[in-house]
Design goal:
This protein has about 400 residues and is of the alpha/beta class. The chain contains 14 helices and 16 strands. It has helices spanning about 5-10, 40-55, 80-90, 125-135, 155-160, 170-185, 200-210, 220-230, 245-255, 295-310, 330-340, 350-360, 375-380, 385-395, and strands spanning about 20-25, 30, 35, 55-60, 95, 110-115, 140, 165, 190-195, 215, 265-270, 280, 290-295, 310-315, 345, 365-370. Strands 5-6-4-1-7-8 form a 6-stranded parallel β-sheet, sandwiched between helices. The structure holds adenosine-5'-diphosphate (ADP) and magnesium ion (MG).
């Protein structure tokens, strides 16, 4: 299905003098009122530049954190983001509060509209709010892949009412790269799903089990799989109520002739702490007071070997508590193997991106998605509501 793009509109000269409303993802971590990490702001700059250079009057908004609707608390304001954005653009960025009723902005100017999640009705996609916001612009641009799996007023409702609705370059690139990797993946295709909980990733595990040639689990998720395999896991983070589901995923892979590899060795500690002494144990030897905080070196080496031979790798979730150096070894080995693989790798997830940054492999990953939940839902083959809204517009206007 076709989606109009900001790039296409800019090239055709259709943006000159037009009011362009861009929904970006500027949800960055803050520390003491300053932007602690600005990847998402930098990623949002190309769309804003494109609209400015094409002669538009540019309004940009984003959510930040999880504010209470109806108020803008001190932690909710996009002011620090406006400051950083101004530095990156090399021009002033005015922050506009109370903007739903009208925005003063001239062609060649860019304003940042205060945290859109402070507007009552944003989260539940209130149609009246969406209509009022759509009335602010001639062209609506969605450039926020990270929230595309949520139908909210600035991501979905507005796209239905704005005179023109299109995808920004960041959203376009995500859909292209992920779509290509999934439509015709080079085989064998391996997925590695780590992180803390099976319950939050069960549907991605189930759907990957239908698509991939190898399914690797790690982190707290692997603990639940170890439990399902009848291994002792002591006091490790695990979800006993997900054991049946884990077993079903193992069976689904087995029916296709492959095993979900279960760790043969692990790194344990007796406390969840950065300075807790780390001990490598065989999987069968985990004691009743042990916490499994990483996969062991033999397991990591075997998994790395599989990953190096893959034609396509999908990675979400660290395989251990990589934030603590003593338990970062497994994730480091996996990250290195992904970097060294000749296959096309795609990675996404908040903590996965942190691990990629920590191990310095960003430039050797085929594609790094900015989405967490949206990345996972896209991989599952689900329709992202914000994308569907753009597709519906694209189809009706062609
Ligand atoms: P992502 O954000 O990439 O999707 P998750 O949020 O699912 O990843 O999980 C990341 C978290 O899982 C990390 O904070 C990491 O410390 C934690 N984790 C990984 N392995 C374990 C483990 N064995 N025990 C407890 N926590 C773990
Ligand atoms: Mg996370």
């Amino acid at each position: 299905m076709t989606i109009q793009t900001l790039t296409g509109l800019a090239q055709s000269g259709a943006l000159k003098g037009k009011r362009v409303f861009i929904r970006s993802d500027l949800n960055v971590p803050l520390e003491q009122g300053h932007v602690a990490e600005d990847t998402r702001i930098r990623a949002s700059v190309p769309a804003i530049r494109l609209a400015l250079d094409a002669g538009a009057a540019v309004m940009v908004t984003s959510h930040l954190g999880r504010p209470k609707e109806g108020t803008v608390g001190p932690d909710d304001t996009l002011r620090p983001v406006a400051e950083r954005l101004a530095e990156l653009l090399g021009r002033p960025v005015r922050l506009v509060a109370d903007w739903v009723g009208g925005v003063d902005v001239a062609p060649g100017e860019v304003v940042l509209l205060e945290n859109c999640r402070c507007n009552p009705g944003e989260k539940k996609n209130d149609p009246e709010l969406a209509r009022r916001m759509a009335a602010l612009c001639d062209v609506y641009v969605n450039d926020a892949f990270g929230t595309a799996h949520r139908a909210e007023a600035t991501t979905e409702g507005i796209a239905r009412h704005a005179p023109v609705a299109c995808a920004g370059p960041l959203l376009e690139a995500e859909l292209d790269a992920l779509g290509r990797a999934l439509r015709s993946p080079r085989r064998p295709m391996a997925a590695i799903v780590g992180g803390s909980k099976v319950s939050t990733k069960l549907s991605i595990l189930q759907s990957l089990a239908d698509k991939v040639d190898q399914l690797i689990v790690g982190g707290g998720i692997a603990n639940t799989f170890m439990l399902a395999a009848g291994l002792p896991i002591g006091k490790s983070l695990a979800e006993p109520d997900q054991v049946d589901q884990a077993r079903a995923v193992m069976d689904a892979m087995k029916a296709r002739g492959v095993e979900v590899p279960i760790p043969v060795d692990v790194v344990v500690a007796t406390a969840f702490a950065a300075d807790a002494p780390a001990t490598v144990k065989d999987a069968a030897d985990v004691g009743p007071d042990d916490l499994i905080l990483d996969i062991g070196p033999r397991t990591a080496a075997a998994l790395a070997d599989q990953l190096r031979k893959a034609g396509t790798i999908v990675w979400n979730g660290p395989v251990g508590v990589f934030e603590f150096e003593a338990f970062a070894g497994g994730t480091r080995v996996i990250a290195q193997a992904i970097a060294e693989s000749d296959g096309f790798s795609i990675a996404g997830g908040g903590d996965t991106l942190a691990a990629i940054a920590k191990f310095g492999i960003a430039d050797r990953v085929g594609y790094i998605s900015t989405g967490g939940g949206a990345f996972l839902e896209f991989l599952e083959g689900k329709t992202l509501p914000a994308v569907a809204a753009l597709q519906a517009r694209g189809a009706s206007e062609k």
